[in-house]
Design a protein that fits this description.
Elements lengths: L13 H10 L4 E4 L3 E4 L11 E7 L5 H8 L6 E7 L11 H17 L4 E4 L2 H14 L4 E2 L2 H7 L5 E6 L1 H6 L1 H9 L4 E6 L3 H6 L6 H12 L9 E4 L8 H7 L5 E3 L1 H9 L19 E5 L3 H11 L11 E3 L31 E2 L2
Helix pairs in contact: 2-11, 3-4, 5-7, 5-11
Length: about 350
């Protein structure tokens, strides 16, 4: 990510961004409180493009967005919410994560999306079943489709956040598909803050990834490594450079794309096509300028490309959620959970 000072145009910065965003032709633009303003560009009588809502604790879910938006055979628009004010989620309690997930999902439902993607594996691991129970829309995550793909391997390592690893969600999902798969879940708490700070494949990123890989013991003993947090695909080069070439590096978002759009692996796809993100509306609970800069870096866009597509929302606009259901297998601490069967957790 380029280190640059916040951008300001001739009309100001955040205020101008909000005003110009209302005039832009983003596929769906909403304001705090869930008020929806649609601008799809579709003509009367034409099929309405599918509107997909995605949410993550921060910039990580952009790795999912680039997979979905880069699908050139689909007519879809996207609403992305980054809860950067409360990022990272990996060191939060299950109760907090569950509340955050329900609040953001509710906000997106009120924003008139057709489908919901939990582009945060920590949220999906801990609160996926509850969000599905309480959301009147189809809800997708990355854990199920990648687990189906990984059934072909004998031994799989999953790098993820501490909370995701302690939930055992990947282990359970893979065991449900193929009991013969041995799964090692490795928490990597250093990586999300690095990605949020724009460190993808530089020296600090390489060092942090190396420490994660060291927890595998002998990496060549694994058939595949799953990037089990949506932030981690932005560090793909750092992982690839330090893993044996025999180890398959798996980005779960690729398999969500195939499942969501019912595509074959050979379907037309290009995340680098100009203007594909014009179909996207971006919202953040943090600083819109800061999020625009990291999003441009993540999506390989020119500086200023998203200047008027990012709007700020406040967590005070979210509904109040009181947890009334237990999150499966978890209490409100981050104490390690021991998994039976072939699954392990390396702390």
């Amino acid at each position: 990510m380029n280190e640059e000072s916040p951008r300001h145009d001739q009309n100001g910065s955040s205020e101008a961004r909000a005003a110009r965003s209302r005039e832009s032709e983003t596929p769906l633009s909403t304001r705090g409180g869930g008020e929806a303003c649609r601008a799809t560009g579709a003509h009367i009588g034409e099929p309405k493009p599918l509107r997909i809502g995605l949410f993550d604790s921060g910039a990580g879910g952009l790795s999912v967005l680039r997979q979905l938006a880069g699908c050139l055979t689909q007519d879809a628009s996207f609403v992305y919410v980054a809860d950067t004010a409360r990022c990272p989620y990996g060191n939060r309690t299950p109760a907090e994560i569950g509340i955050f997930a329900e609040q953001t999902a509710h906000w997106l439902v009120e924003s008139a999306v057709d489908r919901l993607v939990m582009a945060c594996n920590t949220s999906a691991a801990i609160a996926g079943s509850i969000v599905r129970h309480r959301t009147p829309l189809p809800v997708h995550d990355l854990i199920r489709p990648v687990s189906i793909h990984c059934a072909r391997y004998r031994r799989v390592a999953v790098f993820a956040t501490s909370a995701t690893c302690r939930s055992g969600a990947f282990s359970r999902a893979m065991a449900a598909v193929s009991p013969d798969v041995s799964v090692l879940e490795v928490p990597c708490p250093e990586l999300v803050p690095l990605v949020e700070g724009g460190h993808f494949n530089d020296a600090p990123a390489m060092d942090a990834v190396r420490r994660c890989i060291e927890n595998l013991g002998d990496p060549s003993a694994f058939d595949a490594v799953v990037l089990g947090c949506t932030h981690f695909p932005f560090m793909r080069e750092a992982f690839r450079a330090q893993l044996p070439s025999s180890v398959v590096l798996v980005d779960p978002a690729e398999y969500l794309r195939l499942e969501l759009f019912h595509e074959s692996p050979s379907a037309q796809f290009d995340a680098g096509v100009d203007n594909i993100y014009k179909r996207c509306a971006f919202f953040t609970t943090g600083d819109p300028d800061a999020f625009a800069r990291i999003a441009e870096s993540c999506l390989l866009l020119d500086p200023g490309s998203l200047e008027y597509q990012v709007c700020g929302i406040s967590t005070s606009d979210f509904v109040t959620v009181i947890p009334t259901m237990e999150y499966p297998g978890l209490d409100n601490t981050l104490a390690p959970v021991v998994h039976s069967g072939a699954a392990e957790i390396r702390s």
